[in-house]
Amino acid sequence: MAELKKLNVLMCGTGEYTTGWTGSGASTSDKKIGVVALTLFDLRRREKVDHLAMVGVNGKKFPAIREHLEKNIAGAYKDMDVSFEEFPKDGLVDPESYKTAINQMKSGEAVIIFTPDSTHFSIALYAIERGLHVLITKPATKTLSDHNTLIEAAKKHNVVCFVEHHKRFDPVYSDAKAKAATLGEFNFFNAWMSQPKSQLETFREWAGKDSDISYYLSSHHIDICCWILQDIAIPTRVIASAATGIATSEPYNCVPQTEDTITLMVDWESVRSKTHRGTAVYTASWTAPLKAGIHSAQHWYYMAEKGDITVDQAHRGYDVTVDDTGKAWINPFYMKYSPSESGHFDGQRGYGYISIEKFIDAVRSVNAGLTQPSQYDKTGLPTIRNTVLTTAILNAGRISLDEKRPVGIKKDGEQWILE
Ligand SMILES: NC(=O)c1ccc[n+]([C@@H]2O[C@H](COP(=O)([O-])OP(=O)(O)OC[C@H]3O[C@@H](n4cnc5c(N)ncnc54)[C@H](O)[C@@H]3O)[C@@H](O)[C@H]2O)c1
């Protein structure tokens, strides 16, 4: 049996998803101690990973980040080593520090990217070209051509490249995919995902400038829909519509081009039948009401020839009411932060954790010569190749809003392109 070696990992981005630390202190969302670093610290305790590093832009943030991780992770769970190497070092500010960090790595090691949407592509390509395996948060890239470039680069350098679409590991969503496969031709899909208006403060740095709410939230359910329809139908045309006026007004005052709520309407064509066509509507908003008892509203409806599926992942039959803050619907199936009976971290079955562990397992298996990166394309895992239609729809949606026209999606040889 080949030996599965412990993996060295570089985390790119030191923000809310990585550490739970935002520019204005500990996050007030449902990820107060983050997801990526916590999962990797626990995987180090479980002897799957070894040396950990973290790269951001502003090295001055690290003392506060370390204090936050010491107090809330090392102080909360038994046997948790929260040490990591930092870049940029010595309190320097350097947006290209990821190159310094990557240049020190050996091929076969791994990079996990949770940085602003517009930076994913250049960081991922730089890492792949140096023989490193890469996990990129959603949206993988903002354009379909960049996504296609990453597919080719990962193939050329024979590395694992996954997109961190953790909802594929939610037991309800993966079961729903299996059920949908028995329901015949696709007819209609409708998804809603939203976060409260207060997020416009959290996202002030990039909202409407670097990315939009469709890329940020609809990427989740567009990917789930593409995954469900993988062998059933293909998308052919996207037309987008946006509601505006809240984000750009007091007290948020986002830049004038910021949309509040974006809807993409997508035509789908059956791959098996000449007559069956379907419609999907994906809506995302960051101007939802405050104090709704949930951080992200998220529900969808799927209808096919022989039946339908309804999912509400914001309300999972578990709510907690506290005098000061009122009622809240909790989702420990994503990240369970309460410790085990022994005092250790106990969230290994959460789909936020599983999503990262699956990537680490795939990389260790490839490094041990047990599997090839291309094998993962044949599974339901969110490889860069398996997620190309998600980016095609998101990119087409952005073009449709900017150019006020429908945008076609089609296959040109082996590659998907927009028209
Ligand atoms: N926060 C969430 O709940 C969540 C969930 C899933 C996916 N994501 C995705 O994760 C990404 C980042 O999200 P976040 O919420 O952690 O954001 P954040 O704004 O809290 O953090 C972004 C981090 O990226 C760093 N960064 C920016 N440019 C960089 C560069 N050139 N090199 C290295 N680091 C750089 C910043 O210093 C910061 O630490 C986004 O693409 C987002 O869509 C976020």
Topology (elements, then pairings):
Blueprint: E1 7-12, H1 16-19, E2 21-22, E3 25-26, H2 36-45, E4 49-55, H3 62-74, E5 85-87, H4 97-103, E6 110-113, H5 120-128, E7 133-136, H6 144-157, E8 161-163, H7 171-180, E9 186-196, H8 199-202, H9 213-228, E10 233-243, E11 261-270, E12 277-288, E13 297-304, E14 307-312, E15 319-322, E16 326-329, H10 351-367, H11 388-403, E17 407-412, E18 415-418
Parallel strand pairs: 1-4, 1-6, 4-5, 6-7, 7-8, 9-12
Antiparallel strand pairs: 2-3, 9-13, 10-11, 10-17, 11-12, 13-14, 15-16, 17-18
Bound molecules: nicotinamide-adenine-dinucleotide (NAD).
Structure, explained:
There is one protein chain. The protein is α/β, with parallel strands linked by helices and 419 residues long. The chain has 2 domains: 193 residues, NAD(P)-binding Rossmann-like Domain (Rossmann fold, 3-Layer(aba) Sandwich), CATH 3.40.50.720; 193 residues, Dihydrodipicolinate Reductase, domain 2 (2-Layer Sandwich). The chain is 29% helix and 26% strand. The protein has an 8-stranded mixed β-sheet with strand order 14-13-9-12-11-10-17-18. α9 crosses α11. The radius of gyration is 21 Å and the shape is globular. The model has no long low-confidence stretch (mean pLDDT 96). The site of nicotinamide-adenine-dinucleotide (NAD) has 22 residues, from α1.
The CATH architecture classification of the largest domain is 3-Layer(aba) Sandwich
How many individual helices? 11
Low-confidence stretches: none
Main sheet? 8 strands, mixed
